[in-house]
Design brief:
single chain, elongated
Amino acid sequence: MKMNNMFKLIIATAVSELAGIIGSVFTAPFIAGWYAGLVKPAMNPPAWVFGPVWTMLFLLMGISAYLVWKKGLDRKDVKIALAIFLGQLVLNTLWSIIFFGLHSLGGALIEIVVLWLAILATIIVFAKIFRPAAWLLAPYIFWVSFAMYLNYSIWILNT
């Protein structure tokens, strides 16, 4: 049985947004308490900015994955690309667990570097399959680059 494209789009975006929801379970309880008490750099956005930005980024990730998936799971390159994509989604969720759940600023910094590399790998493999899918991930890698700066700055300011 073949899935229609609308169903693939719904699954791809739902899986991506689910990664954000799981991460928020570890983030939300600490925003008002632990995180609010940390010294942050001048460029740190207000806490309310992160939710809408991440929601949009997860949506773009889902659309990007859908565009690759649409090329066919019978292709080995598509299977590999989607596996790399899922790996970076797991890493994305792990960052929230490490930073907010475990309060490990240094551990989260190491993890976000690995996440950034996984996003780059995803962009590269997606570009080989369907270039617009890779471009949809550009805002994501830019935001994670900014998040890496914030993570590093918070780590430095609080150690």
